[in-house]
Design goal:
Elements (H helix, E strand, L loop, with lengths): L25 H15 L3 E6 L9 H4 L1 E6 L5 E6 L1
Length: 81
């Protein structure tokens, strides 16, 4: 796959929830991915979330591939770990 000039195919961002009440990082991740996909003129993307919240389910229970849809309607492959 070719990228538009000056674009990148991937980006690593870290969402650090604070304390045991930290919310699920998925909504913010999907919104951020929306902006990247729009800027690149793409209709689909992949989001990987390494959930390090203290209250996150055990890694064996949460690691899986899913499909998701961004707020703007982009199809996303989602890997939660």
């Amino acid at each position: 796959m070719r990228c538009p000039r000056g674009a990148t195919l991937g980006r690593t961002r870290c969402h650090r929830g604070r304390g045991p009440q930290a919310g699920d990082p998925l909504p913010a991740g999907l919104a951020q991915l929306d902006r990247y996909l729009d800027r690149l003129g793409l209709t689909t993307g992949t989001l990987v979330i390494f959930d390090r919240r203290p209250n996150a389910p055990d890694i064996t229970d949460r690691t899986a591939l899913h499909t998701a849809t961004t707020p703007a309607g982009h199809a996303v492959t989602l890997l939660r770990a």
